Every structure is written in C-alpha cells, then in structure tokens.
C-alpha cells in the first residue's frame, strides 16, 4: 500500500480541476483511494468526503467573494441536502461494494451526457417560489444519492441547476456551496459509523486539496467562460464513469 503516498499529488490536480466546475472531487478521490489499497467503505468513502468538503468549501469562499453564488437556490437546496445523506449512508452500509460502484457509474454517465448535450428545457431565472421548490425537492433527492454513493453531489447539482436556468458558471459556483453542506453531512455520517482514519494520509491529502482548490476557483472566477465549464464538466465525468464501469464489471 506504499502507492497511497501518491495520493496528495494526484489530488492536487483533481482539486484544481474540480474546484473550477463546482464539484468537490469525491467522484475521483473515492475510486483512486480504493485502487491505491484503501477499503472502500471504511476508508476511501470517508476520506473522499472529507476532501470533497475541503475542496468545495474553499472554492465556495472564492465564489462568494466574487458574488457568483445564487443564494435564493443555494440556501433551500443545501438545507435539504444536509438532512438526507444519513439515510443514504444507512442504505449504503446494506449494499455490496460492486452494486454501489455500478450505481455510481450510471449516475455519472447521465450527468455528463446532460451537460455535454447542452439541453435546457427552461431558460432565464426562476421565481422566488420556484427557487424554493427546486431547492427543497432537488436537494432532498440529491442529498439521498450523495449519502448512498459517498459523493458530495456536485455531479447532480450542476446539471440540475443548469437545466433549471442558471448559466454554467453560476451553476458551478452555487454548487460549490451546496456540495459543502451535503458533503459535511455525509462525512459526519460515515465518520460516526464506519470510518477508520489513517491520519498521516488524511492530513497530507487535505493540505494538498485546500491549496489546489484556491488556485482552481480563482482561475475559474477570473478566466473561464461557461462553455468551457460545461466541456470540462462533461468530459471529466465520462472518463470517471468509464473507469468505474470497468472496475464494477470486473469485480
């Protein structure tokens, strides 16, 4: 398991990329930690969620300062997502690892296809009531899935907000705040139930992710256009899904 010491370098690259698209990165942290030798449920998922929270919260601070977060959607969405991950975590414990990995991959493919297609049934901003309805209903569903799959939920939040009418940069920035809330709830659920921390690895990965997320989020706020946010988002997720399906089928 000496390969685990490669994790901080790998996660620096991942955090830099994912902070630009409103995602914490657990979509990659979890499978990489698993491939490097960590137990999927007791080590890879809890550490992946911790790094997810570190990355998304750091990015959200940048986007908040730049006034890129849509708070009318972010508050109800994140509130709902705080409450549902524990239920998803409980279901997770009851499922075999192979099933979790395949579910993980299928949802990732759906999110990638949605962003790359550019399909949007609704344009323009939502009313205050619409923001609340979207936040509560979307947050409940995504929060459950986040706890079930060991993810912060950004892969689902960004496409949902984009389809609902937010432009890609605003969707990514808002997602960073939402993912922080859901990831924190999911992490606490796992750390209190099944986690077995390896502290040296956890701390080194955490420092690497925090530095990278500040660099990535500042680059997105200053340089990236919405069309590039969509392209990076979809391409990254398709690569993750392909690797996960291969792993799940071959187990």
The coarse silhouette is globular
What fraction of the residues are assigned to beta strands by DSSP? under 5%
Total strands: the figure is: 0
**Could you tell me the radius of gyration in angstroms?**
16 Å
In terms of structural class, how would the helical and strand content be classed? mainly alpha
Uncertain spans: none
Q: Tell me the number of helical segments per DSSP (H or I, 4 or more residues long).
A: 11
Largest sheet: none
Question: Level of helix content?
Answer: over 70%
Mean pLDDT: 81
- Written as H for each helix and E for each strand, in order along the chain, the element string is HHHHHHHHHHH
Kindly report how far apart the N and C termini lie: 19 Å
Oligomer: single chain
Spell out the key features of this protein.
251 residues, mainly alpha, 11 helices
């Amino acid at each position: 398991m000496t390969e685990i010491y490669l994790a901080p370098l790998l996660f620096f690259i991942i955090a830099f990329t994912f902070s630009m698209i409103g995602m914490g990165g657990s979509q990659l942290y979890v499978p990489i930690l698993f491939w490097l030798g960590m137990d999927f449920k007791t080590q890879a998922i809890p550490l992946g969620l911790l790094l997810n929270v570190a990355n998304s919260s750091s990015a959200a601070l940048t986007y908040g300062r730049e006034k890129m977060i849509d708070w009318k959607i972010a508050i109800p969405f994140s509130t709902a997502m705080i409450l549902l991950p524990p239920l998803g975590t409980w279901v997770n414990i009851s499922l075999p690892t192979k099933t979790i990995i395949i579910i993980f991959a299928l949802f990732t493919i759906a999110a990638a296809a949605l962003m790359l297609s550019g399909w949007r049934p609704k344009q323009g901003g939502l009313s205050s009531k619409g923001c609340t309805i979207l936040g509560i209903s979307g947050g409940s569903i995504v929060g459950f899935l986040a706890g079930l799959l060991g993810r912060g939920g950004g892969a689902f939040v960004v496409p949902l907000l984009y389809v609902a009418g937010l432009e890609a940069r605003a969707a990514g920035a808002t997602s960073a705040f939402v993912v922080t809330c859901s990831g924190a709830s999911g992490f606490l659920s796992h750390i209190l139930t099944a986690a077995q921390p390896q502290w040296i690895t956890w701390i080194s990965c955490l420092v690497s992710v925090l530095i990278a997320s500040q660099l990535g989020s500042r680059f997105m706020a200053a340089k990236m256009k919405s069309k590039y946010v969509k392209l990076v988002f979809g391409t990254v997720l398709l690569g993750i899904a392909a690797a996960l399906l291969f792993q799940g089928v071959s187990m």
